Structure to design on (179 residues):
């Protein structure tokens, strides 16, 4: 039995969950998210709770059971609280500048600045020149945008320069030893 899939999802006040055929739509204070359900998985709506059920005990059904439950739980959290990822920039001359909430300009040691446009539903905040906050209601999209920003200049192991997640630990290597 899937331990994750069997747990019911509690729906807080102000959140509306509707199931229309193979699509689950969650609407809350921050916006609306929808998710298409994979093969045989069914979602039933009770009083302030949602349960996810699978048709049989095949390994594919078992894996989708927990996945769908987690996706719906993340949708409920996203429309009530939202998600954010924090990135830190380390290196001399490396900095970020917000151009509104939907554009970001990065100086990463290239001969040109890197301009990043936020997809729909994503906002950027730059509290300091070396700190970037990526915010949104879709957990997968927030993580993907943060990974795309990090990809411009990954942290290197010798001096530690680059863009890293706030809680990421970069293992440093020793440089060349002089003779």
């Amino acid at each position: 039995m899937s331990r994750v899939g069997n747990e019911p999802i509690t729906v807080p006040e102000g959140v509306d969950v509707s199931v229309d055929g193979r699509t689950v739509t969650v609407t809350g204070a921050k916006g609306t998210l929808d998710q298409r359900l994979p093969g045989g998985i069914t979602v039933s709506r009770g009083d302030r709770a949602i349960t996810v059920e699978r048709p049989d005990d095949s390994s594919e059904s078992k894996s989708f059971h927990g996945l769908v439950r987690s996706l719906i739980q993340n949708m409920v959290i996203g429309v009530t609280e939202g998600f954010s990822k924090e990135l830190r920039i380390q290196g001399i001359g490396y900095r970020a500048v917000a151009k509104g909430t939907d554009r970001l300009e990065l100086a990463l040691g290239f001969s040109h600045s890197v301009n990043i446009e936020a997809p729909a539903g994503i906002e950027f905040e730059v509290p300091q020149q070396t700190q970037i906050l990526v915010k949104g209601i879709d957990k997968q999209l927030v993580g993907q945008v943060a990974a795309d920003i990090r990809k411009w200049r990954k942290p290197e192991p010798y001096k530690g320069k680059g863009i890293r997640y706030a809680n990421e630990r970069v293992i440093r290597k020793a440089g060349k030893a002089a003779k």
About this structure: The CA atoms of residues 83 and 139 lie 6 Å apart. Helices lie at 3-6, 59-80, 139-151. The mean pLDDT is 91. The chain has three helices and 13 strands.
